[in-house]
Amino acid sequence: MRILKYIFLLILLAFIGVAVFVSTQKSEYDIVTTRVIKSPRAIVFGYVNDFRNWENFNALTKEDASAKFVYPAVTVGKGGSASWTSSDGKGKITTLFAKDNDSLSQKMVFNDTESQISWKFEDEGKATKVTWRRKGKVGFWYKVQSVANGGLDRLLRAISEQSLADLDKTLVFEMTTYSITENGIVYKSGTKFLKQTILSTIDNAPKNRRIMLSKMQHFFRKNKLSATGKPFVLFHSYDVSKKLTRFSVCIPIKDEVRTTPESDISFGEFRTMRSVKITLNGDYSHLPEAWGRADGYLNTAKLERDPEIRAIEVLTKNIEDVKSPSKWVTHLYFPLRSAAAPAPKTIVPRAIAPKPKPVQNDLDEFSIQ
Question: 124 has which bridge partners?
Answer without folding.
Answer: 127
